[in-house]
Amino acid sequence: MSDDEKKRRRPRKMGRPTTEDALRLTSHILKSARELFFEHGFDGASADMIAEQARISKRTLYARFGSKARVFEAVILDEIDTQLRALEPSGSDEPDIGSRLRVIADRLLEWLLTPRIASMERVVIAQAVRFPALAANIHDFGYQRAVQWVASILAHADAKGELSLADPVFAAEQFVTLVVVAPMRRAALGLSPPAYDEAARDRISRGIDLFLDGCRPRQEDGCSA
């Protein structure tokens, strides 16, 4: 056997996984765990089930995340981050403030009013008291990012004289709660269908109109928000 043949036959040394390999494995685990958590809830989805779904050992699962609770938190925050990065507005050419707010409401609710997110919301609500840090992270990671988007739109409208706002951030919090959080919560509780259908769109339009009625310039004082 020639030296070249010996070299080809010699087994390669197994090195440390690359960063790309590690990220790919993490994404694969989160995808597998997401399906189980959304279908079975936190308690119904065991670490053994997640490892089996991902086709890895439970030892690998714990080595990467530390605990099932950390897997759950990573699943929820990854879902929020992935979607919000995809939906983040880069500006709007809509001519009036009502249309600009409608664009951002449509983007958020077309994602949030789905069976998948309704299922996620139910799981999160069920575990909020048990894992308060997760609830706080979701608030900061998701809700506050949406509030900042809306606040920038409102501040611009205030500067143009379309609105009269003492505090655009506070006003944005009220908008997101009224127009986004409320319908998402109703869908999670089964009080309305998890779909952004014609009825939901009509309700959102009325919510936006109600919000703007309280924030448009008046002869006397501006909106207290």
UniProtKB/TrEMBL annotation:
Organism: Camelimonas fluminis
InterPro entries the record matches: DNA-bd_HTH_TetR-type_CS, Homeodomain-like_sf, HTH-type_TetR-like_transc_reg, HTH_TetR, Tet_transcr_reg_TetR-rel_C_sf, TetR_C_Proteobacteria
Domain HTH tetR-type: 23-83
Pfam families in UniProt: TetR_C_7, TetR_N
DNA-binding region: 46-65
Keyword vocabulary terms for this entry: DNA-binding
Name assigned to this protein: TetR/AcrR family transcriptional regulator
UniProt superkingdom: Bacteria
